[in-house]
Design a protein that fits this description.
The complex is a heterotrimer of chains A (about 350), B (about 325) and C (about 280).
Chain A: E1 2-6, H1 10-20, E2 22-29, E3 32-37, E4 62-71, E5 74-78, E6 87-92, H2 94-107, H3 114-122, E7 123-128, E8 153-158, E9 161-166, H4 169-177, E10 183-185, H5 188-203, H6 219-223, H7 227-232, H8 240-244, E11 251-257, E12 262-268, H9 288-306, H10 318-322, H11 329-342
Parallel strand pairs in A: 2-6, 6-7, 7-8
Antiparallel strand pairs in A: 1-9, 1-10, 2-3, 4-5, 4-12, 8-9, 11-12
Chain B: H1 2-14, E1 20-25, E2 34-38, H2 41-47, H3 59-68, E3 74-78, H4 80-91, E4 100-105, H5 113-118, E5 124-130, E6 133-138, E7 143-146, H6 147-150, H7 153-156, E8 168-170, H8 184-191, H9 194-205, H10 213-217, H11 245-257, H12 266-270, H13 278-292, H14 318-324
Parallel strand pairs in B: 1-3, 3-4, 4-8
Antiparallel strand pairs in B: 1-2, 5-6, 6-7
Helix pairs in contact in B: 3-4
Chain C: E1 9-20, E2 23-29, E3 44-49, E4 53-58, E5 69-74, H1 78-85, E6 91-98, E7 113-118, H2 122-134, E8 142-148, H3 157-164, E9 170-176, E10 186-187, H4 190-197, E11 204-208, H5 211-224, E12 231-234, E13 250-251, E14 254-255, E15 262-264, H6 265-269
Parallel strand pairs in C: 7-8, 7-11, 8-9, 9-10, 11-12
Antiparallel strand pairs in C: 1-2, 1-6, 2-5, 3-4, 3-6, 12-15, 13-14
Helix pairs in contact in C: 4-5
Chain lengths: ~350, ~325, ~280
């Protein structure tokens, strides 16, 4: 048996949940969707992905770290943080759920990033299994099952409703707190829906993409691979791939003079930008080739080298859909793998 | 078309007319071509592709290649709208015209996969052109979509099918399109109240993630160092330090390309957040047309744009004051 | 005080020494007059003037100095220009310590040490040199080869002359690039000077200086018969967080702020050539 919520009860669910915490849901905008706080009347997007990933919830694009008041030679240091409210994010796909684990490895490893940790602890992830994956999806390459997001609570669409499964204590407590709006039903339709999704996944054009030839031990051969020059040739050095990526987490720290003090904030940064490693006396990555290589080496070699073999990509396909010149990690992997096997 | 282009590219490479060819290489799904530079006949034979999805404006790549080696002879295939950018870059001394062999490619408008996806077609594995429609193969079965419905936004309001610069032409040259309707949306924005307009742009621009794709792809954005990247400018923030930052970025950029923007539409094409950035530029173009007489940047390489040339008939600065009261 | 990584402590500059035309040494204490935190030689700290910038600097003073911390800083960018222009009593922000120190308590113990520094490259080594001088019994012989463009560019000149040279068992060899009035010492570049000195192959080398000096001195050491496993250096790349998260100071899979800045040359050899 499994908990079930009829589709026409979804708003009731959001309403009940909103009494306990802020609920964010994907909402359509011009040619895409983004998370918005649910209020009565909000229409949930039926799209596969939000244009940007869900990483903003824990690692927002800009975030104030600390503030300073300057007077004469004296400085006052102020921690600007306020108590974070509990919140839930609905509709998170399996790839994005996995990406949080990758971000955790960066931000929750010693020394812990308390800004991230605070947001992470206040957040509840409501996963949504994929029904109609896109051609750009390749989560399977990284061992992710699009049918089973493994969030705090998973929602599986079937039988004109959602089948609900809590995977964590936090998720169980949340489901229990809303208990009476769900009904108990036989789980068979949910299993059928999942099986159907898995069938589609097998048919996806990128289903045969593998990580063979990549990993922490492949540093030397991949760093010096001939393919980087061609692959990076058309790159315009923007940050699109980085900013839509659920696992890219590099950041910059900047100061801003508000007129009555200095705000020190962090913001997303991109290794694709020419000033990423530029110092007063030089730059170790002078051309786009080196910057481009860094991004993919980080995901396919450096990250696994430092994190027990886990890759820094979840195959969500956002970069495939949004790169201005249609260059992306899949093309990189395929070309480098070909080069490797040609040796 | 593709085969003729390949054949000419190989001929021009083989007879030494050019040393490099700027074109496109194939993608994974038949709609995701990447601009590429070819140097051998073999590469062109195996990897050159041209189809309805080669919408990217490659004129800026000519500049990039010439920066690497200014004397290398380059063959570039330009669609009509790309030729305007090419001319503008030549006029601004960013491209050495003599070292480029331009093959103008006739164009009836490019398709945009975003439009196909927006029509609800998912899981695209292949797209075939079939007269006035596309047959789209997907993991969920075959679909068809009318070519007109798959046409890129900017192509639906195409300003010109005329090739303004070329050494030879493949396909058919066209004409400047009268009444393209490209200013319709601008007129609609102009008709709004100032508050509504402000609200419209705040809403659109609030989605900006400062990825810089619009700037980096823009053929008019050719500064050696952008003011937004220059630590000495005082405005080199990478992200919104305050809630108006993105607005400033786009407004300043639009001002800086005013009079030079050819309306190629790349800014809106590449925007991952689908902000209609081209409307900012079109507003400037429309204003220039109305205040100084019709002017199209990149029409040729000789004429000075109205904002950098003085005539006694120029609009008086008071026009701003008058309009501000609208 | 907080245990937050990205929120700095308050520091106060209590003394500024002009070392060379473009290097000043700043003494930093907390506003309460104590040392901001403990460190080991070779470790770094993030110093900042809010609104101007934040950057990583070697802690120049030795951990054995219980009273204060010192930073020798060369003027070369926005922040350093600001630091050079400030007066005593200015508050700054400081956080750290960051990075892996020189292995003074492990691999270097009991070893004969050869320090090679060029210009401002003495800054990180000064911490080790004074640590070794203060724990003399734990180490063998100490030889210091230090060079700069001119006599006026030698950092810590007075300390070198009055303290280091006065120490038993410490040999100091100074050199400057070009002849100069009032200088009767060695003239010539460090790589050649090191070869002329022909140091004992038993020595462990700690080297810091401009990249070109490092490159040729290392080649010279190899020629003399040294192994890369005997030579340590300290690296500098652009840093923002200092704790291996902001993602920009990596060389391959190693972060200079966290896995470095001290590397042995055989370790650097394992990394891609991107620094």
């Amino acid at each position: 048996m499994m908990l079930y919520l009829a589709k026409d009860k979804l708003d009731v669910f959001f309403e009940k949940a909103s009494e306990k915490l802020n609920v964010y849901v994907p909402v359509d905008n011009t040619n895409g969707s983004a998370y918005r706080k649910w209020t009565p009347g909000t229409v949930v997007s039926k799209g596969l992905h939000t244009t940007k990933s869900a990483k903003d919830f824990f690692f927002p694009q800009t975030e104030n770290l600390v503030e300073f008041k300057m007077s004469g030679k004296a400085i006052e240091i102020i921690d600007p943080r306020r108590e974070t409210e509990d919140y839930a994010v609905f509709g998170v796909r399996a790839c994005d759920v996995r990406s949080f684990g990758i971000l955790d490895k960066v931000f929750l490893s010693d020394p812990v990033d308390t800004y991230y940790k605070n947001r992470r602890e206040h957040g509840l992830i409501l996963g949504l299994s994929c029904g109609r994956p896109a051609e750009t999806c390749f989560c399977g390459t990284f061992g992710i099952d699009a049918a089973e997001p493994m969030a705090d609570v998973d929602f599986t669409e079937a039988d004109n409703g959602y089948y609900i499964k809590a995977n964590t204590e936090k998720g169980e407590a949340f489901v229990a707190s809303l208990g009476d709006i769900f009904e108990d039903r036989d789980a068979a339709p949910a299993e059928e829906a999942k099986a159907k999704t898995r069938e589609v996944l097998k048919k996806l054009p990128l289903s045969n993409l593998t990580t063979d030839g990549f990993g922490g031990d492949k540093l030397d051969e991949l760093f010096d691979a001939a393919g980087w020059a061609d692959l990076s040739e058309a790159c315009i050095g923007c940050g699109t791939c980085t900013f839509v990526c659920p696992t890219c987490q590099c950041y910059d720290i900047r100061d801003y003079d508000t007129g009555h003090g200095i705000k020190r904030f962090r913001c997303w940064d991109s290794c694709m930008f020419s000033d990423f490693t530029k110092m007063a006396h030089g730059n170790p990555r002078l051309t786009q080739k080196e910057r481009f290589r860094q991004r993919f080496m980080h995901k396919l070699v450096y990250f696994p080298a430092n994190n027990d073999g886990e890759y820094g990509c979840v195959g969500c396909g956002r970069c495939l859909a949004s790169c201005p010149i249609s260059m992306n990690i899949v093309k990189v992997m395929k070309k480098l793998a070909k080069e490797d096997s040609g040796k | 078309m593709q085969e003729v282009m390949k054949k000419r590219a190989i001929e021009l490479l083989s007879d030494g007319t050019v040393a490099k060819v700027i074109g496109w290489m194939p993608g994974e799904f038949s709609y995701d071509m990447t601009p590429a530079v070819f140097t051998t006949a073999e590469e062109i034979e195996s990897n050159f592709v041209y189809n309805d999805f080669c919408g990217a404006n490659v004129s800026k790549y000519v500049m990039r290649e010439q920066k690497k080696a200014s004397d290398a002879k380059i063959l570039v295939f330009l669609k009509p709208c790309d030729t305007y950018s090419f001319n503008q870059l030549t006029a601004e001394h960013k491209i050495v015209r003599e070292n480029v062999y331009v093959i103008g490619v006739g164009c009836d408008g490019m398709a945009d996969v975003e439009k196909i996806k927006a029509a609800g077609i998912e899981g695209i594995t292949g797209i075939e052109s079939d007269g006035d429609k596309f047959i789209v193969k997907t993991v969920y079965g075959d679909e068809t979509i009318a070519r007109a419905d798959a046409l890129a936004e900017r192509c639906a309001a195409c300003k010109s099918k005329k090739l303004t610069v070329y050494d030879e032409i493949i396909g058919e040259d066209g004409e400047v399109v009268e009444n393209s309707g490209r200013f319709d949306l601008v007129a609609k924005l102009e008709a709004m109240s100032a508050d509504e307009r402000f609200e419209f742009w705040r809403n659109e621009l609030s989605r900006c993630i400062r990825c810089n794709a619009c700037r980096n792809v823009c053929p008019a954005c050719t500064c050696e160092q952008c003011v937004f990247d220059n630590p000495k400018s005082g405005i080199d923030q990478k992200a919104a330090a305050d809630s108006f930052e993105e607005n400033m970025f786009h407004i300043i950029r639009a001002f800086h390309v005013a009079g030079r923007c050819t309306d190629c539409g790349e800014c809106s094409r590449v925007c991952p957040q689908h902000i209609p950035l081209h409307l900012l530029n079109r507003k400037f173009i429309k204003d220039i047309n109305e205040l100084y007489g019709d002017y199209q940047a990149g029409d040729d390489t000789e004429s000075k744009h109205p904002l950098t040339s003085f005539t006694y008939d120029d609009a008086e600065p008071s026009v701003i004051h008058e309009r501000g009261n609208e | 005080m907080t245990n937050e990584t990205l929120i700095p402590y308050l520091g106060e500059v209590t003394d500024i020494r002009i070392d060379t035309p473009d290097v000043k040494t700043f003494r930093v204490l907390t506003p309460d007059g104590v040392k901001p935190f403990e460190h080991m030689p070779g470790q770094c700290a993030m110093l900042s003037i809010p609104g101007v910038g934040e950057a990583m600097f070697s802690i120049t003073s030795s951990p054995t100095n219980r009273e204060y911390m010192e930073f020798s800083i060369k003027k070369c960018g926005c922040l350093t220009e600001w630091l050079h222009a400030m007066d005593i009593g200015q508050q700054i922000t400081i956080r750290g310590p960051y990075g892996k120190p020189f292995p003074v308590e492990t691999e270097l113990k009991g070893k004969d040490l050869l320090f090679i520094a060029g210009g401002i490259g003495l800054a990180p080594l000064r911490s080790v040199i004074n640590y070794v001088r203060d724990n003399r019994e734990n180490y063998g012989s100490v030889q210091i080869v230090y060079g700069a463009r001119s006599k006026d560019d030698l950092v810590d000149y007075n300390e070198i002359i009055s303290e280091w040279m006065a120490d038993d068992g410490v040999e100091v060899n100074l050199t400057i690039d070009r002849e100069q009035e009032g200088w009767d010492g060695h003239v010539g570049f460090i790589p050649n000077f090191v070869k002329e000195l022909n140091p004992d192959l038993k020595k462990t080398v700690l080297m810091c200086g401009p990249p070109v000096m490092i490159k040729f001195t290392l080649a010279g050491l190899m020629e003399l018969g040294f192994e890369k496993t005997q030579v340590y250096t300290t690296m500098e790349l652009k840093m923002k967080c200092g704790v291996g998260k902001c993602g920009r100071c990596n060389i391959g899979d190693k972060y200079v702020c966290k896995d470095g800045p001290v590397f042995r040359f055989d370790e650097l050899d394992e990394l891609p050539d991107e620094y």
